Amino acid sequence: MNRVRDPFNLHNLTLNRPGTIAAINILRATATTAATEFRDRAEKAAASAAQQAVETAAKAAEFAEQAAERTRDAIGAVAEAAEAAAKEVERALDQGFQSQSDLEQGVLLPAAEEPPEEEDIEDQMASFSIPRHVPSFTDPVRQAEDRLWAATRQRAGQGAGGGVLGGVQDKVGGFLNPDRTSLPMYKDKPYGYGPGGGRPRPLLRKKRVLGFLTLVVLGLLWFTGFFDEHHERAVAKLGDWGWLSSDTKARSKADWLRRRERVVEAMELSWDAYERYAWGYDEFHPVSKTGRNMAPKGLGWIIIDSLDTLMIMNLTSRVTHAREWISKSLTWDQDQDVNTFETTIRMLGGLLSAYYLSTEYPNLAPITDDDIGAPGEDLYLEKARDLADRLMSAFDTPSGIPYASVNLGKFQGLPSHADNGASSTAEATTLQLEFKYLANLTGEKDFWDRSEKVMQVLDDNQAPDGLVPIYIQPSTGHFHTSNIRLGSRGDSYYEYLIKQYLQTKKAEPVYQDMWNDALHGIRKHLVTYTENSGFTIVGERPNGLKGNLSPKMDHLVCFLPGTIALAATEGLSEREARKKPGFWNKQREADMKLARELVQTCWGMYRYMATGLAAEITYFKIPSDPLPESSSQHTSPPDSIFDDPAGPEATWRKDYEVHHFDAHNLQRPETVESLFYMYRITGDVKYREWGWEMFKSFVNYTAVEDGGGFTSLSNANVIPPVTKDNMESFWMAETLKYFYLLFSPEDLLPLDKVVFNTEAHPLPVFEVGRLLKTGWERKARTGETKSA
Ligand code: DMJ
Q1: Whose C-alpha lies nearest to ligand 1, atom 6?
Q2: pTM tops 0.85
Q3: Alpha helices of 329-466 — where are they, by DSSP H?
Q4: What are phi and psi of 552, to 5 degrees?
Q5: What is the mean pLDDT of residues 157-163?
Q6: Is 425 annotated as a binding residue?
Q7: Are 146 and 181 in contact (CB under 8 A)?
Q8: Which end of the chain is more exposed for a tag (fewer CB within 10 A), N or C?
Q9: Residue ID of nearest Cα to ligand 1 atom 3
Q10: Range of weakest confidence among 143-147, 354-358, 620-624
Q11: CA–centroid distance, residue 12 to ligand 1 (Å)
Q12: According to DSSP H, which parts of 400-508 are helical?
């Protein structure tokens, strides 16, 4: 029997009053849903209020605080109402709800939940497409949203879509599945969706009294921490990992190899949990030990994304199983909308990387049953090619800027159903490494030309100082909105500039030029220093370059220090780069300094948190008149600042701030990615040590009981943490891979021979040749930016 907390002693009351058991059961059962929904709605309301505040760059912190205040008020109101409700319950108990015989006939018992028909599940999945940052679909927020969406769909019919694009995607979804009752997979909401207008929700209308009572009771249960406790029990205890407590300092190469073996064990545990509980599914929920697909027949989301990590770690039997699934079960011929960018970086990138590794490193997890004697796994290239042909339909737009989505089965590009049909800038410009390598492998020039054209169209906008707004319109090729940031929707635009330059062995200086412009712009407009300790940060300009600097850093921005270092040495070690005739200069020196400072700030994001795992978003305390990057008044703090004996009262901590709604940790890779680059390039062992500390925190606080693998956290700033029940595919694709490489010898995948795509899939550098070459030049700058 499930143990539940019983603050009203209802259990004993029911023992003494036959006839009330079922009533209380109803309260308990429905209350769980209602309270979860209530909590998540309150959190969501506050989060969205905070987001709005950030977007307008006006009083962000103040606004979020107000939202939190409203949430607290709401909780207070619930608590007050709960008291009244408790009395109501008591009175009901006194009177008896119903006769025992009625109860025994199940009059008040909740109907047993029918398992959904397989067909229904498939129908619902058919309407999914892939999100930018892969939400959890078992998340209560999502489930609540799905219910609300279903209600609005039912009352509005299939014509709910609207907006400038006429709800194209909605219409397609409706055509495919007229009974669709769950949200499309994007985190963005379709037009017409929202809790605002319309009639009252049916649940509340029909069961208002019961709903209110259960809401109140469960509101109280949540308030007293019942649900958190439930989550926390899912996290494995420190004792399960003996080596964590007996960890000693690494003194030799052998010690680092031993540490690397711990990473392999974490990979094995993650993969085996997925294999055991969710094999073939696109999502894995390690706490509930369930899986879920994002397309009717699955997309191989986790299998393909993890494949090259398994290969690099030489886990042959697992690679064999993955390959077997790809061979026998994977089909792209599905009537399914997918996100162009996510599918390119994870699936196309994963398959191409597996092809590359199996060709160039045949001794890594060798498989002998495909084309014996021939190098490479044709299977991976065949599947990559088939997928790419379908993804190419995204580029069929008036400007050449790709649509946000495609329907795989229909070879059809689809504009975003939100943001006026605009695509995210980072998404449109983070496809080129994959399509260009495929062009090189297949000789198909079209893959090259269409992906390259995007860069030209974007650059023709002449964004000042190389800093691009985070949306761009496929219809016009012009920017949409003026929001500039290196976090979500902006990040990998910058990353792929320098990586495109390196991919073709520096034969395309146009991309280095664009990178140099952008880095100059980052220094000029986004870099500043914190008030107390002088940490270097990269802020945001939500209202464009003329607006204020917001001292907010997504964890996503932490890819930047590693990428700056990579650009500064062009893949060489710093020592080699300094010796190379005519290569080293003041600018490269300054870039390495900036990279060192920024990675220290990112490391501080981990040190700041209770679990040692960074929050999704961190705010920084900066002076009202922020110091420019060019300021000579700035001195970086020493690393020892993090060991300040003042502990929680340490001055450095006053520069960091994490809002409650941003305290989640999604197992993201960006900081360990930068540590990997920084170690490879500088050779400074401190970056390995920081990585080891991070890895231990992941093991300590995110491992799931019963061999469940590892989970994201909803709150990484409490101990024990609150789990989120989702293992992101980039945990195995990126985070564990970068830990492994950080502790590996430097000659494994050297940085002057490979470029890692933004999902950590290594692709080789190659010569462009005559067929494939840069087909454009940058226009002379006029000082005017085009926007839609
Ligand atoms: C990954 O899919 C990629 O690293 C992408 O560039 C950003 N988001 C996730 C990891 O955080």
Answers
A1: 758
A2: no
A3: 340-342, 349-360, 378-391, 425-428, 432-442, 445-459
A4: -115, 135
A5: 30
A6: no
A7: yes
A8: N
A9: 759
A10: 143-147
A11: 51
A12: 425-428, 432-442, 445-459, 491-503
Question: Would the CB of 492 count as within 6 Å of ligand 1?
Answer: yes
Choosing from 134, 432, 559, 759 the residue with most ligand 1 atoms within 8 A of its CB, the one to mutate for a pocket test is: 759
Which atom belonging to ligand 1 lies closest to the Cα atom of 555?
11
**What atom in ligand 1 is closest to the CA of residue 666?**
11
Give 403-420 pLDDT, tens digit per residue: 999 999 999 999 999 999
At 523, the amino acid letter reads R
DSSP 573-628: -HHHHHHSTTT--HHHHHHHHHHHHHHHHHHHHHHHSTTS---SEEEE---SSPPP
**Mean pLDDT value across residues 590-614:** 98
The yes-or-no verdict on residue 122 having pLDDT over 70 is no
Q: Is 758 in the pocket of ligand 1 (CB under 6 A)?
A: yes
| 612 φ/ψ angles, rounded to the nearest 5 degrees | 80, 15
Give rounded-to-5 percent helix, strand, coil for the chain: 55, 5, 40
Q: Which of 444, 385, 312 is nearest to 744 (CA)?
A: 312
Say how far apart CA 77 and CA 660 lie, in whole Å: 20
Which tokens sit at 13? 């009351």
Give the span between the Cα atoms of 70 and 701, in whole angstroms.
Answer: 31
Q: Note whether 473 and 117 are within 8 A (CB).
A: no
Which one from 43, 574, 670, 759 is the annotated catalytic residue? 670
For residue 183, the model assigns a pLDDT of: 34
Using the mean position of ligand 1's atoms as its centre, give its distance from the Cα of residue 132 in Å.
9
pLDDT band per the 50, 70, 90 thresholds, residue 26: very low
Verify whether ligand 1 is closer than 6 Å to residue 759 (CB atom).
yes
Which residue has its alpha carbon closest to ligand 1 atom 8?
A: 133
* Ligand 1 midpoint to CA 346 (Å): 9
Q: 77-121: per-residue pLDDT in tens?
A: 444 545 555 454 444 444 433 333 333 333 223 333 333 333 333
How many angstroms from the chain centroid is the CA of residue 90?
Answer: 46
Q: What is the pLDDT of residues 643-659, one digit of tens each?
A: 999 999 999 999 999 99
668 lines ligand 1 (CB under 6 A): yes
Q: Which two tokens stand for residue 518?
A: 């952008």
Q: Verify whether residue 342 is a known catalytic residue.
A: yes
Contact 465, 525 (CB under 8 A): yes
Per the CB < 8 A criterion, the answer to whether 391 and 340 are in contact is yes
- Please determine, for residue 138, whether its predicted confidence score (pLDDT) is greater than 60: no
Is the C-alpha dihedral spanning 130, 131, 136, 141 positive or negative? negative
**pLDDT for 547:** 97
Closest-CA residue to 173 (of 141, 194, 195, 149):
149
- Predicted local confidence at residue 128, as pLDDT: 33
- Name the active-site residue from 377, 434, 491, 725: 491
Q: How many angstroms is it from 501 CA to the middle of ligand 1? A: 21
